[in-house]
Structure formats: C-alpha cells, structure tokens
Amino acid sequence: MNHNLFLQFEAHFRATPDKTLIDTPEGRRYSYGEVLATSQRLAGVLQSLDVQPGDRVAVQVGKSPEAIMLYLACLQAGAVYLPLNTGYTGAEIEYFLSDAAPQLYVCPTEWEADAKRFYQEGLVVHVESLGTDGDGSLMERAAFAEPVTDIACLEASDLAAILYTSGTTGRSKGAMLSHANLASNSRALAEAWRFTAGDHLLHALPIFHTHGLFVACNIVLTVGASMTFLPKLDVEQLLDLMPRATVLMGVPTFYTRLLQSPRLNRDAVASMRLFVSGSAPLMAETHEQFRERTGHVILERYGMTETNMNTSNPYDGERRPGTVGFPLPGSEVRITDRESGAELPRGETGLVEVRGDNVFQGYWQMPEKTRSEFRDDGFFITGDLGLIDDDGYLHIVGRDKDLVISGGYNVYPKEIEQLIDELPGVAESAVFGVEHPDLGEGVTAVVVPREGAEPPDEASIQSVLRDRLARYKQPKRIFTIEALPRNVMGKVQKNQLRNDYADIYTVKEADETAV
Ligand code: MLC
Ligand code: AMP
C-alpha cells in the first residue's frame, strides 16, 4: 500500500478541477486543476535538480499559493518538505541548512544572490528562489518543466516534513513527521470539526508551522474545500472577507485583536460556522467576550509540532473555556507524575503524555534526544503540565519546559540567554515570559553585569540581537539587576522574575498604545 499523503488529496484534484482551491484578497484565483498542473511541473523541476525521495527541500519563502504547490510537489515526489520561518536570520539559517543538508534551498527572490553563498559553502546542492507573486527562478523553471504525474510509493513511516523546533538546550531540533502522521491527523480533524467540500477557510497564519500548514491546509485539501490566503493577520481584511467564509483558524492573538474592532458583531460572522483557536492558551475572558459579541463559542484545541493535534473541544458538545477538550480519534492522552512517571488519577496535575498515529518519528539525527522524550510504551512526553477533569476534558495548566509562547510562536529562553551571556560586561542573564495583552506572553530579559564592568544598556543589547535572532524571539524589554533569584539548588527562579515584572506590559499598555 502507498502511504503517500498526496493520495489523500488526489481525488479532489481529479473530481473538481474547476473548483477554486486558493484565492487571495488581490483577486488571484487557483483552481484544483491549476494547482495540480503547477505542482506536477514543480515535481518535474525537483526531478531535474536530482531531488530524490527522502531528500530535504528547505523552503524559506513568503506566503503564497505557489509555496503550497511546491509543498504538494515535494509530497508527490517523496521529498521531505522543510519549511523555515522567513524571520530567521543568517546564523539561524546556516544552522538549519548544515543540520538538514538539503538538496535544494528555496528563498525569496530578493535573497537569491546572497543565498548562493550557501551553495558555495557546500551547505546545499541547489539554490532557487520563489517570490510571493509567482515570480522567481523556481517558477521560471516550472514553465518549461515536464510535468511528473507519478506519485512516489512510500511506507507509513517515510518522512513528509521536518519542522525545526527550538529546544531547552538552545539547539533547534528537527521534528520528523511522516506521511502517515500527517494523513491520519488531518482526517481526524476534518471529521471532528465537520469539514466538507462546502467549507471556505480564512487563512491568515504563516505556512511554515504546523498550525498554518498541516492543520489548516491539509484539512482543506483532505475534504476538497477552498481557502483565502491572507499574507498576514489584518483584522479589517479578515472582517471584509468573512461574509465569503465559513471557518477561521487562529492563535489567541487573532481573537483578542478581532475583539478590538467595533465591526465584530453577529452580522459580521453570519456566514461563519466555526472559529478554532490553538498554539497557545486562550484566556477564558476572550472566549466569553467573543461569545457575547458574536454568539460563537471558539473551539480550542491542543497540539504541538512533534505530535500534530492531540485534543480538541467537541464540535457538538460543550466547548469548555480554559480546557482543550478530549483526545482526537487515534490519539491517547495521559497525565503522569513528574518524578515516578506513574499515571495519575483524574483531577491531579502532572506531565501531559501522548501516543498515537499523530506522534512524530523522532528528532532528525538526534536518537538520544528522541529516546529521552519517549516512554518505553511509546508515549511522548510533551513537556506541558495538565490535568484531566472528572468529565474527561484536558486542562493545560502550565509548562514543565522552559518556554515562552509569544503570539503563538515558541521562544526557548536558553537560545537568547546564550547570546546575551556572550556580550562584554554581562555575567549572566535570564529570559522569561511576562503576560502581554496582545501576544499572550512578551519575551523579557534580565541581565546581571560582570563585577566592576559597565553593563551594556538595553538598546545596545537589542541592536546586537537584531542581526542574530528572528524578530519574534527578541526581548521586548531588558532590565539590569544585581543578581538572579535562585533557589537552594542554585536554579534560577523564573516564577519570581515573572512575578517581579508581572505588569510591565499590561500597565504600560493601558496608557500607551505600543510597548
Ligand atoms: C510579529 N512580531 C512578533 C510576533 N509576531 N513579536 C513577538 N511575537 C510575535 N508572535 C514582531 C514583528 O516582527 C514586528 O516587529 C512587531 O512584532 C509587530 O508586528 P505586528 O505587525 O504586530 O505582528 P503581526 O504580523 O500582526 O503578527 C502577530 C501575530 C503573528 C500574532 C499575528 O505573530 C502570527 O501570525 N503568529 C502565529 C504564529 C503561529 O502560526 N504559530 C503556530 C505554531 S505551530 P518590527 O520590529 O517589525 O516592529 C504550534 C502547534 C500548534 O504552535 O498547536 O498549533
Ligand atoms: P510548538 O512547539 O510551536 O508546536 O508549540 C507547542 C506548544 O504550544 C505546546 O507544547 C503547548 O505548550 C502550546 N499549546 C498549543 N496549543 C495550546 C493550547 N490550546 N493551550 C495551551 N497551550 C497550547
């Protein structure tokens, strides 16, 4: 049996070639037939660049329908799609390329000349470009390429994608997702959320992460639905387009920003059947305000890069604020004791562990790390803390991992602390998340100066980090303190730091509009 995820989409390409699959606010429109034709030509380009099944194709491009066609071409060819955040800077990109050793790196057109150095440095075999208007060398090649119609015959465990997630050690890990992982999860979600070919999704998420690529696009492709691609979140544009749509998926910031628009009311959402939130905790208050304004109860679900989606509030039953619902079909969730690993009864808080067809194949070239995050019976330790209540709803109550989630993006403090610690005049630093009204958590740093040294000021640290870290990872505020708070074991007390700086964004934002 061929487990290629592409087969799950293929019937719609053939059955409804004239139906729109993707459109854009500027009026570009791509039918299922056109998307298939272009992705088959792109598969031809991959063949001409000698991309073989299992080879990585690193794609760091702006959001466009053509990027999805390239994703489809990779699936079809059995190549491993490796999307990268366009915000990553030089040193970050070099790490990903040297770790993944891709056969092909695709970058925005304006970076192409500079990116050739990756080829010269031997990090990749080919460099091509893809712009957001269907421009770039890749599409130029596609115009002349022979379409490939063969669909690579793959095992269930063969890789469809590698997504890098930062780590608590500061070193990013490539999460390996198989065709079967992605296929089973999108089927489970499509069913749980009652997706049909009649749905139209408003897509305003980035397409280099699980949420925007796998949850959103794979579901649409699985049921033969359609979607509008917005380049980024623009609330007024979302509201303009809402009368044509049935579903929105977003991170909590989507909903807090929508609530700020006076245009959000019952009439504005009249055609919508479902609002989904995930990637970060949705405040019960946002849930409630959204229900009051629109009559819609946001459906919150829980997932992560390594596992795809694990749980979801019910479509038909009660969607309970502050919870992430029940395990999806094919997924199991249990709560265990942090020390002993023993399963805990309902109502008790512990580590959230998951098992199922959705759970990834491990970290790219990190067998030790992979082993240490799985139990012997196949459960994956998520690093989230939670409890299952008497009615079976999962509550995510915190994190065991040192992680900040800013606007749905994960930021691992270690990576930033290491860079700050290298600066002259710095003895040590700590990075943590502080409640932020727009982003959920704001990345914040404290710096301890070296004895007798002049500590670098906030602006100079920020200017050094600007070239070395993607924008969303950069601390919004940096404070100088005399010593880090530590417990008797010497561990930095980030909870105390979070308390000490608890209102820096909330109080400031009450009288200023921006931080
Ligand atoms: C943008 N900026 C951010 C930021 N996003 N800073 C911190 N955190 C973020 N999330 C920076 C910008 O570069 C800009 O910097 C400044 O902040 C203001 O930008 P903005 O215009 O307000 O940002 P905007 O484009 O509106 O983006 C905010 C956002 C976006 C929340 C809409 O970040 C977003 O779409 N997030 C979704 C991330 C996501 O898809 N997560 C899912 C991961 S998968 P400057 O210097 O230019 O002013 C996963 C698994 C699962 O987690 O369960 O789903
Ligand atoms: P990522 O590694 O970027 O895929 O982020 C996954 C992490 O996001 C999870 O481990 C959780 O900590 C968090 N997360 C995702 N969805 C939710 C949610 N609905 N509520 C709380 N946390 C969430």
What is the element layout, followed by pairings?
Blueprint: H1 6-15, E1 20-23, E2 29-31, H2 32-48, E3 56-59, H3 65-77, E4 80-83, H4 90-100, E5 104-107, H5 112-120, E6 126-129, H6 137-144, E7 159-165, E8 173-178, H7 179-192, E9 200-203, H8 210-223, E10 226-229, H9 235-241, E11 247-250, H10 252-259, E12 274-277, H11 284-294, E13 299-304, E14 308-312, E15 326-327, E16 331-336, E17 350-356, H12 367-372, E18 380-388, E19 394-399, E20 404-406, E21 409-411, H13 413-421, E22 426-436, E23 440-449, H14 458-466, E24 477-480, H15 494-500, H16 506-511
The chain binds malonyl-coenzyme A and adenosine monophosphate.
Structural classification:
alpha/beta
CATH class of the largest domain: Alpha Beta
- Which fold name is given in CATH as the topology of the largest domain? Rossmann fold
The total tally of domains equals 3
- What gyration radius follows from the Cα positions, in whole Å? 23 Å
Write out the distinct hetero groups bound to the structure. Answer: malonyl-coenzyme A, adenosine monophosphate
The proportion of residues forming helix, as a percent range, comes to 25-40%
Major sheet size, sense and barrel closure: 9 strands, mixed
- Oligomer, anyone? single chain
What's the total count of β strands? 24
